[in-house]
Structures are given as C-alpha cells and as structure tokens.
Design a protein that fits this description.
Number of strands: 15
Helix content: 40-55%
CATH topology: TIM Barrel
CATH class: Alpha Beta
CATH superfamily: Glycosidases
Strand content: 15-25%
Largest sheet: 8 strands, parallel, barrel
Radius of gyration: 21 Å
Number of domains: 1
Bound molecules: 5-hydroxymethyl-3,4-dihydroxypiperidine
Structural class: alpha/beta
Number of helices: 17
Shape: globular
C-alpha cells in the first residue's frame, strides 16, 4: 500500500503497518514549559522574554499570557498520572531557564530544580521515559537586557545552564534536546517580530541563529562529560517546499525557500557549514563566526529531533509572469485551524530526505499534531475526529518511512494538553487532552482515547 492510499481520511492505522515500528519505539507526547506551567512567580522564577513580549499590547491574541496557562506546575502529579492512564511511554517536556538560574548566569535556584526533579521521579514511577528539552524559547529576560541571542555571551550562559540542569537530572533523564526550533527563535523572534523578543531585523536573525547554534555546540560536550551514556540531540522544525508546476522560476523559488526554511540549521549541525547561497539570497551578511565555532556546532549527535506540521507549495504567479507565489489554501486539501495544510506525505518525504542527505544516527519525530476547534460537551467528552485522522495519517507516514529505511525511534504528539500557543494565545488547541481553563479540569479528547488504544496495540507498549 502506498502513502497516497493511506493518507485518505481514516479513523485508524492500517493494522499491517503496526509491526513496522521497532519494539523499543518511543511513543510519546510533548509540551513546553512556558506553554503549560503557569506559576509565573513561583519558587523564585524570574521573568522570561515571553512574559515581557506577551504583555506588549497587540503581541498575543487578546493580550493573553502564560501566567497561569494549564497550571501544570500545580497539577503536575495529576498530569503525569493521566499520561500513565493513557499508556504514554515517553514524555518530552522543556525546562524553564528562569526557574533554574533566575539571574541568567550564576547561582542555581534549588526550588526551580526541585520541580523538575519531582516531575522526573513521577514519570519514572509511572514507567514513562523522560525526554528533556533545555531551551524551548523562555530566555531569562535579564539576559535579553544584555543582548539576548545577539550576544555571544548568551551561548556560553546557555552551556552553563545546561550543565547545571544535566548535573542534577542526568542520573535519571537519558534523552536531552539542547534547543527546540532554532528557526523560530531566530527568524520569528528577530526578523518577523511575531515571537519574543519581537525584533524585525533580518540581520539580527542571522546573528541570533549563530549564537543559538553555538550554545548548542558548547552544551553538547558539557552534557556528555557529565553523563557519558546520555543521548543528546537538537530539534529542528522543517516545512518541506514543493513545486506546483515545472516553470524555471518555480524551481528556483523552491530551491531558495528550501535553503532558508529547511537547510539553514540542519547543514551547520550535520555538515559544519551554512548553505552557500543562504546569506546572499536573504540579502544579509554572514554571522560573526569565530574559529572553532563550526566544529563545535557540527559535533556528532545521537539523534535529530524533527518537528513537522505541514508543507509549503509554490507555483508560478498567473497574474505576474516570471514571478512565483505561495499557493494557499491548497485546492482540494484539508487545513487545520492554524491554516496549515494537512499533508502527511510531507513527513514521509522529509524523514527519508534527512536520512539520505544527513544520515543522522537516529531520528525522533519530536512534534507532530494539529489544532482544531474542539467541542467539549461540558461532561466527559471532547469530540475531535479531525485530530485523530491527522494523527493516523501522519503516524502511517512515519511507518512508511521506517519501512523505507529511515531510523525513526520515536514519535511525540504535539501536544499532551491544550496550552498557550504563543501569539495565538489560548485560541488554538493542540492537545489530546482538553483544558477547561476556568476550572483547570482535564478532559481526555477522543483522539487521546484513540492514542491510548493505539499504544496498547503498538509494538513494545506495555499493557496498562
Ligand atoms: O506550539 C508550538 C511549539 O511550541 C513549537 N512547535 C510548533 C508548535 C505548534 O505551533
């Protein structure tokens, strides 16, 4: 069976594909600190750039922020118990730097570390493997005031912070992700202005990107020195670019957009160089690269984390001969409420391409999921058939990629629970668990029940 057959809207995985997943495959769910924790002032946490940005008028939908979010900080045990009930085998969460080192550099805050230590213990008690991300966008505001990622010092501060965390949790956490989505940190935060710190300067994005990657490169050997058996990787977000026609201008635009959107970060990490045409095509100067930087950035990793949601389609512009345009919405395709096309083939193609072009030791799909307008009946039921169909089609895409040789070792649904979707605030729900924000009640959505059933049937999943 080909992916195009299976990509049709379907409510369950083709049973013959389940055997494709290896016995130790990590079936998981993912979240991030600022998006779920709330407790913005608890136990010595300092402000992050997202606290500051969210409180700027017009930055976030209806002026919302992460002060309370899903209040996971106070519901942590209940949330972990719910994961266990759903048969989740692995949980990807992120650690908030402002809780650990509130001053950005210097003294470690024991109460901040204690929260994550208790989380890890609770996960292990329930047989759930922790996968920790060290940076999912909540930079201490105090560091932003000293230049943030535009300052090379921030890369060194990140490595110190990473060491403090891994020194404390590394005896129990075996999978470490340094950075989540450097593209979003760099471009959305520094050029596009839609994310913290809200800058609109393409040159700043290039500089920030280099320092984010340097932070990653500096942290990796420090993690390995502390925990030689740790599995260390980075998570990149990809949006594969497709051509809608065969015009030369389309081919050119696809190549250039792919360089910007997909190769900007994977090439320094896996090849030790930035793509040759990147800076000229973006009309910017190269970042300030110092001797030894690229070797640090490209040191071998144990895995590459892949976040995939959708693709981009480009074609010739019928109104403007010789030019191209993004085709959106894509005729005949379904789209989520983020406006993203549902395109599971893109995940299959992406995993195979990464395997072919960069040969990572292992791949994890560290995020994949969809936002829909879920309807809670006020009782125990949230009907979300579209999310279930989305997950079915994308998990099938992963199965096909494994079958075709890609070394995929895990899949994490974004997200375990509804949360603060950055500039969209709470208006977009990605969870397989619904959050009723006024009461903080958790209600497992139909897709969450389906994921539970899937994990009970999937190879390696313990019966719960
Ligand atoms: O919510 C985000 C997450 O923080 C990073 N990856 C994409 C998700 C959906 O937009």
């Amino acid at each position: 069976m080909t992916l195009s057959d299976t990509a049709q809207v379907r409510g369950d995985i083709d049973p013959s594909l389940l055997a494709t997943f290896p016995p130790n495959f990590q079936w998981g769910v993912a979240t991030s600190s600022y998006q779920i924790e709330g407790a913005a002032e608890a136990d010595g946490r300092s402000l992050s750039i997202w606290d500051t940005f969210a409180n700027k008028p017009g930055a976030v939908y209806q002026g919302q922020n992460g002060d309370v979010a899903a209040d996971h900080y106070h519901h942590m045990r209940e949330d972990v118990a719910l994961m266990a009930q759903l048969g989740i085998r692995s949980y990807r969460f992120s650690i908030a730097w402002p809780r650990i080192i509130p001053t950005g550099v210097g003294a470690v805050n024991a109460s901040g570390l204690a929260f994550y230590s208790q989380l890890v213990d609770a996960l292990l008690e329930h047989g759930i493997a922790p996968m920790a991300t060290l940076y999912h966008w909540d930079l201490p505001q105090v560091l932003q005031e000293q230049g943030g990622w535009l300052s090379r010092n921030t890369a060194f501060a990140f490595a110190d912070y990473a060491e403090a965390v891994v020194g404390h949790l590394g005896d129990r956490v075996k999978h470490w992700i340094t950075i989540n989505e450097p593209f979003c940190i760099s471009y959305l935060g520094h050029a596009d202005g839609k994310h913290a710190p809200g800058m609109r300067d393409p040159q700043a994005a290039i500089i920030a990107a280099h320092h984010v990657l340097l932070g990653h490169g500096l942290a990796v050997p420090r993690i390995r020195a502390l925990m030689p058996d740790a599995q260390v990787g980075i998570t990149l977000d990809f949006s594969p670019i497709y051509a809608a026609d065969d015009l030369p201008e389309t081919r050119q635009a696809v190549t250039s957009e792919d360089t910007f959107r997909n190769r900007w970060f994977v090439e320094p990490v896996y090849r030790g160089t930035y793509p040759e045409t990147l800076f000229a095509e973006q009309h910017v100067a190269p970042p300030p690269i110092q001797e030894g930087d690229m070797a640090l950035i490209s040191a071998p990793l144990d895995f590459l984390g892949v976040n995939y949601y959708s693709r981009q389609l480009i074609g010739g512009d019928p109104d403007n001969s010789g030019s191209t345009r993004a085709i959106y919405p894509v005729p005949g395709s379904a789209h989520t409420v983020m406006g993203w096309e549902v395109f599971p083939q893109g995940l299959n193609d992406l995993l195979l391409r990464l395997h072919r072009d960069y040969a990572p030791a292992a791949l994890y799909v560290t995020e994949n999921g969809a936002a829909y307008n879920d309807e809670w009946d006020g009782g125990d039921r949230v009907s979300d058939p579209e999310r279930r169909e989305y997950l079915v089609a994308h998990i099938e895409a992963v199965a096909h990629a494994i079958d075709q040789g890609a070394p995929v070792q895990g899949y994490f649904v974004w997200s375990f629970m509804d949360n603060f979707e950055w500039g969209e605030g709470y208006s977009k729900r990605f969870g397989v668990v619904y959050i009723d924000y006024p009461t903080q009640r958790r209600i497992v959505k139909d897709s969450g029940h389906w994921y539970h059933d899937l994990l009970a049937r999937a190879p390696g999943s313990p019966a719960r």
